[in-house]
Amino acid sequence: MTPTAPRAVTLRDVAERAGVSTAATSQALNERGNLRPETRARIKAVAAELGYSPNRSAAALRGGRTMSVGFVMADGTDGDAAAERRALRRARQLNALVRASAAHGFAVTVLPDSRPDLVHSAQIDVLYFPDPADDRAVLREAVARGVPVVANDLYIAGAAGLSIRTGYDSAVRAALILLAEAGAERIGLLVDESEVPRDQIGESAYLAWSTVHGRSPIVARVDPGRRRLAREVRALLDAGADAIFSFCEEGPEIYLQLEATGQVIPRDLQLVALCTTDCALNDRLGITHVCVHPEWAAETMFSCLGDVSGSDPRVVDLPWELVRGSTTR
Description:
The chain is α/β, with parallel strands linked by helices and about 325 residues long. Helices cover about 40% and strands about 20% of the residues.
């Protein structure tokens, strides 16, 4: 005979053991009501003894919530190197959302960015839009239906929710200031050859900073497959760059290319690299890098969900840090 699973402890079980009503039990466990301190303490002790765990889904349904987050997934795949990099970033974002959602008792519903019709039947409490480069049809449908929206690096006027600034532009400015203060006069920028808004944010921040400080910009664009990386690094050096800020996250690879050319860091050239995932190799090589954490957006969303009822999105900035190195050849 197949053994039956043990029955879950209910609120009524706790109430009967504690000798009180279910209403009093609910008040004690949810820190509500005007119960006497000793009664509240006894009910909590009984709940702990019985192993009572509240049914979050049932409570959510009573409050009109579904305990589900919608995640917009780009469903176009071209199979090229650029698409593979975007897919990898999206997988990291989804994994971060799944972990944060599980920790807060939420499920995740994935919505293809080409299917706005699914918003109606998805039954979600909030829509998470991770990349401003994606098709916004699902986003517009959610806004039209009054679903709160959480978007990275995108401000949607008139929509309740959050606008999470991932910090790329601030990190760029900090890196450029560091290079300039260290004496760099010709700072070159390495950026991905793409139309992705993230890369546009980095290049725009670099060009704006160069204009304000009277610097002539030197931009080199790297192909998604990184086949031109060595050539573009050499192009920056030939253009007179005495420092390089890499917005395409290739700190270790650039370091190896500079090694091959006989450049010494920081004596001959300074290098600062963007880092969005594992910065351990940059740390070991001593490469100065700016770390941004777009994957923290998911947890930030849950910490701010209680304050998304306004007519315009609340703006939240993610933390980032600059890690100094002293790489030498």
